[in-house]
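fyi for ur records
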Amino acid sequence: MADPIALLREQQEKRLVALGHQRTERQQRLVKLRQHETQLNTLIQDYSGAGEGHILLMANRSQMVTQLQPLVEQCQRQQAVAEADLASLDGQWRRQLGRRQGLVWLEGEKQRRLQNHARRLEQKQMDELAGRKRPG
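which gave:
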């Protein structure tokens, strides 16, 4: 029969790995959102720059900045949601890590108890054998 602690530890390890993958994906999404915001802000700066030229070109730049600003705001909102999601997932991952570590410790304690019991049993048998060999 399989050890229930070992089975539970394996389940917890699988859950930990799954949460770790989700956590990595969320971190990557957040990085991409931040990069996207940076790109949008760079475009806004480029279009906002002091430009000389035709009045239509200046109007075009102003219109582009007006159209890009809502995209930056949307990206910031998505980042806020992604950060909250990542923080929640990170908390779940840390709790899961604690559970798995606890089970690893418990498994080790069980193994130590079994080894101690086996040593005591062996010592008892050796003591009994030694007692029988003595002429009395």
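DSSP finds two helices and no strands in the chain. thats all i got for now
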